[in-house]
UniProtKB/TrEMBL annotation:
Family listed: Belongs to the IMPACT family.
Boundaries of every Impact N-terminal domain copy: 18-123
PROSITE patterns: UPF0029 (PS00910)
Biological source species: Companilactobacillus paralimentarius DSM 13238 = JCM 10415
Gene Ontology CC: cytoplasm
Alphabetical list of Pfam families matching this protein: DUF1949, Impact_N
One Gene Ontology term from the biological process aspect of the record: regulation of translational initiation
Name under which the protein is recorded: Uncharacterized protein
Source species taxonomy: Bacteria, Bacillati, Bacillota, Bacilli, Lactobacillales
Domain UPF0029: residue ranges: 139-194
C-alpha cells in the first residue's frame, strides 16, 4: 500500500480543434480489467467516432501501463495521453480520447498537441485527489461533548463517519499515519480523556488536491 495521486471522479472534457471534436473521457480504474472495461464502454458509446485513442496506468501487483493510437499515426495519440498521466504521477487512471474528424488534417505535431492538451485540460477540470493510507479509529464521545468535538474536527479537517447517537455518540475517523499518534494525544488532552479511541483498520481515503 502506498499513497498516490489519481483523478477525483469519472468525467469528460470536450474541445474543437480545426473542426475536429476531441472528447477526453477519464475514470478511476483499479485493475487492467477495469481499465479495459471502461475503454470498451466508451468505444461502444462513441461507436461513430473516427478514433478512440487510449492510455491507462494501474497498480495491481506491479504498475501496468498501456496505450493505443487506434488508427492515428504511430506515437501521435496514445503516447501523448500517457505522457500527461506520467508527468502528473497519476495512478489507477484510464483515459479515452475520442476524435470526430472534421475534414482538416492536423499533422503529427498537431495531433500530439491535440491529444495531449485535451487530456491535460480534462484532468485539470475534473480535479485530482490523493489516495492516502490512513489509520482508522472508533470514537465513543459523551453526548454533551459532541458539539465541541464536532467543531474541533471541522477545524482540523477530520471527517466524522458512521455517526451513531444514543447515550453516547459513536463515530469513525481516519488519520494520516505520520500524524495519527499526535492527533490522538491532542484529542485525549483537549477532552480530558473523556473520549475513547479504539484503533481499527488502515484504509485508503481520498483527500482533494488543491489546484496551483
Amino acid at each position: 500500500m502506498q499513497n498516490y495521486k489519481t483523478i477525483a471522479k469519472t468525467g469528460s472534457h470536450e474541445k474543437d480543434i480545426k473542426k475536429s471534436r476531441f472528447i477526453a473521457h477519464v475514470a478511476q480504474t483499479f485493475s487492467e480489467d477495469e481499465a479495459k472495461a471502461f475503454i470498451q464502454k466508451i468505444r461502444e458509446q462513441e461507436s461513430g467516432a473516427t478514433h478512440n485513442c487510449t492510455a491507462f496506468i494501474v497498480m495491481e501487483n506491479v504498475k501496468v501501463e498501456r496505450m493505443s493510437d487506434d488508427g492515428e499515426p504511430s506515437g501521435t495519440a496514445g503516447s501523448p495521453i500517457l505522457n500527461v498521466l506520467q508527468q502528473q504521477d497519476l495512478l489507477n487512471v484510464t483515459v479515452v480520447v475520442t476524435r470526430y474528424f472534421g475534414g482538416i488534417k492536423l499533422g503529427a505535431g498537431g495531433l500530439i498537441r491535440a491529444y495531449s492538451s485535451t487530456t491535460a485540460e480534462a484532468v485539470k477540470e475534473i480535479g485530482l485527489v490523493e489516495n492516502r493510507i490512513q489509520q482508522g479509529y472508533e470514537l465513543t464521545i459523551p453526548y454533551h461533548m459532541f458539539d465541541k468535538f464536532d467543531n474541533y474536527a471541522q477545524k482540523e479537517k477530520i471527517n466524522l463517519e458512521d455517526k451513531q447517537f444514543s447515550t453516547d455518540v459513536k463515530c469513525q475517523i481516519f488519520l494520516d499515519l505520520d500524524s495519527a499518534k499526535q492527533t490522538v494525544q491532542n484529542i485525549k488532552d483537549l477532552f480530558q480523556n473523556q473520549i475513547t479511541l479504539k484503533e481499527t483498520e488502515k484504509n485508503y481515503k481520498q483527500v482533494p488536491i488543491e489546484a496551483n
